Amino acid sequence: MTANNTLHGKYAIITGGGRGIGRTTALAMAKAGANLVIIDLDGDKAQETKALISEIGTSVHTITADVSDQNAVENAFKNALDFFDGNLDILVANAGVPHHCAFLEIPLNEWERIIKNNLTSTFLCGQKAAQIMTNRKYGRIIMLGSISGQRGSFGRAAYGTSKAGIMQLTRVMAVELASYNITVNAIAPGPIDTGITKFGPSQEKEYLARIPSKKFGKAEDVALAAIFLADERSGFITGSVINVDGGFNAAGLMFSYNELKSFKSDSRDNNKSD
Ligand SMILES: NC(=O)c1ccc[n+]([C@@H]2O[C@H](COP(=O)([O-])OP(=O)(O)OC[C@H]3O[C@@H](n4cnc5c(N)ncnc54)[C@H](O)[C@@H]3O)[C@@H](O)[C@H]2O)c1
């Protein structure tokens, strides 16, 4: 096994693999030798990912399905297992939708749509994958959380709660599935430039002022974490959340050192020698 072939012969399902982080992760896993099933609402986009993977040379199959619908998930996993001859080693539960709305204004149907699309879909796919993996006594499950599920950001009541739920589900699944040699971990991206979400210049400036690395992440940064967690050798890592965020969460509310020095009115700072 070479460093570039760490998933050789493995069977992986990636939800939301039609574009963005999901597509980049699917390509990275194919390059690492995995066979792929891409499940996405958008069948045309999934086909585009398939064409890119076919050039790499591992086997790939696409399924058009809404992973927040229980029957659709049942059928999609049955279809995937037929393609994989009953094998499944890796699930990347990546499908999700963004959302911003002030807490005071969120209509119930909006709240329910985000919870269902992000959290319930992850539960459904995670449970289905785990039922297959427990029989095989092996599995790597990777869920997509978010820094928005760790911080109380404005406008993120529904989205942030769905992502916090995913990260808590990760911990409970990790505990319950550990004895089956199944690991369950989450990746929490900060702002990732997938080429789809575009910030205006002033919005970009404000964002970058709050990210210690002074740049947006790339889908490849997230894919690298997924490859690491999917590796057979990562078997002692379970129940963890890996932040891929350029230090965004570590920094919290960030003042530069010069700003801190300029807060002269705070007598405690003026009297301190440290
Ligand atoms: N991009 C970021 O900055 C960022 C930050 C934190 C977390 N995330 C999370 O990472 C994941 C991927 O983000 P992205 O930016 O690549 O998103 P994206 O919108 O570019 O791609 C999401 C893909 O998921 C598919 N999808 C959505 N809901 C689905 C459903 N119910 N059934 C099947 N397919 C569905 C879409 O069709 C699309 O192809 C999401 O869970 C997102 O919340 C992204």
Description:
By secondary structure, the chain is of the alpha/beta class. Helix content is 46%, strand content 15%. The strands form two sheets. It has a seven-stranded parallel β-sheet, sandwiched between helices. α4 links the parallel β4 (90-93) and β5 (139-144). α1 (20-31) packs parallel to α2, α1 packs across α7 and α4 (108-136) packs parallel to α5 (157-177). It starts with 10 loop residues before the first strand and ends with a helix. 42% of the residues are buried. The mean pLDDT is 94. Bound molecules: nicotinamide-adenine-dinucleotide (NAD). Nicotinamide-adenine-dinucleotide binds next to α1 and α4.
Radius of gyration: 20 Å
Strand order of the largest sheet: 3-2-1-4-5-6-9
Molecules bound to protein: nicotinamide-adenine-dinucleotide
Largest sheet: 7 strands, parallel
Helix content: 40-55%
Tally of DSSP helical segments = 10
Q: Rough shape?
A: globular
**CATH architecture annotation name:** 3-Layer(aba) Sandwich
Order of helices and strands: EHEHEHEHEHEEHEHEHHH
Mean pLDDT: 94
